[in-house]
Amino acid sequence: MELALKTLNKLEFKKIRDIKTVLIDSTPLIIDLKFNGKYISKQTCLDKDYKRGFSTSKGHYAGFKMTLAVEYETLRPLAILIHPGSPHDTKIFDEIMHELKRRRLIRKGQLILADKGFYSTCNYLNGINKYKIVPLIFPKKKPTLEVLKDKITNPLDYFDYRNKSGAIYKKLRERLFELLPKWEDFRRTRWKIEKVFQFLKEKLGLGHIHAYTKRSVYKKAYLNVLLLGIIISYGQNEIQEIYALENFT
Prior knowledge:
By secondary structure, the chain is of the alpha/beta class. It has one domain.
């Protein structure tokens, strides 16, 4: 299943190696189960591949959670993660960044856009110090930007005078705090990935999945994301054009 995105990224490597902005978000994958009005507990799912989850838009559900990273300009899928249930987005950020790095899709100074669900001081720190990117995660009211500035510090190798590349940390930190006060201006930019999820669910059948094992759900999700990538690779790179396509599955 992982071979799907690997193949797509290899075919388009020349086009995606200079990515400037990446959008990251998560969405629930709800499996088509009927409980006849009965409450489903966590204990009920202990021996199942799927788990009980919660989404602000869907409420309680049984299934998985898909995290997707796409290129902003073309909406081309770059990486995908699937977890049982609904682990919090803050715990997934480092994992999806590691996946992008493993696929050699991260570049120094790259802008990563994510919503408030991924908000964590640790994620800001990891983004700058570990991956050398600008993690523009939409902030919450607390802590304030002044408090964040005190918490987001440079790594120890920044103070090593022999490390000439240490200046990158300062530039990334300055860039982050230059953009954070203007985060509302990026709402429409990040909104594009919501339309990608809507297209995957309404047009490609990921809204309610008639599959119950980890392997079958992963297979369906990966192949549908691959199909989206192929459509985009053949020139359908505007969200209006993609969303207009119907009945091709």
